[in-house]
């Protein structure tokens, strides 16, 4: 798989940010109150697990897909955009300190953003970028029934 998008450095991904309108759905927040979270609230293991498993692609980030609040969260959003993934669940951990700590405890990963595919923790920005560059992200998305837009881009590029 060789395409000009595969090897974009992190700096180039950051430059792509700032534009709005790429996403079909806005930032989705977890529902508050009730549920299986119990007295521990939204940061409990049960509550976090429910969020992680609620959608095939879940991102815990700083800010929203339309307005990421850190460069690493922005890079994750841009990588997903390059692959044509617009239908994903995003949670702004800056809006909820309990959730911010809860996701770190759940994944045993100290930093944000965090990406989950089909309920499984993938990693943060660095891992997603590495998967993007190696082509592994295309394969993981395929397992979820998501066809990467990069495949179409390469096919179109080959016709020229």
In a few lines, what is going on in this structure?
Residues 57-122 form the Glutaredoxin domain. InterPro entries: Glutaredoxin, GRX_PICOT-like, Monothiol_GRX-rel, Thioredoxin-like_sf. This protein has 160 residues and is an alpha+beta fold.
Write structural notes for this entry:
With 160 residues, the protein is an alpha+beta fold. The protein has one domain (25-159): 3-Layer(aba) Sandwich (Glutaredoxin), CATH 3.40.30.10. 42% of the residues lie in helices and 11% in strands. It contains seven helices and four strands; from the N terminus they run ααβαβαββααα. The protein has helices at residues 10-15, 45-53, 71-82, 97-107, 125-134, 136-143, 149-159, and strands at 57-61, 89-92, 114-117, 120-123. It has a four-stranded mixed β-sheet with strand order 2-1-3-4. Helix 3 (71-82) links the parallel strand 1 and strand 2 (89-92). The longest helix has 12 residues, at 71-82. It is globular, with a radius of gyration of 16 Å. Mean pLDDT is 79; it is low at 1-39.
Annotation keywords:
42% helix, metal-binding, metal ion binding, Glutaredoxin, single chain, Thioredoxin-like_sf, 160 residues, alpha+beta, four-stranded mixed β-sheet, 2Fe-2S, 7 helices, disordered N terminus
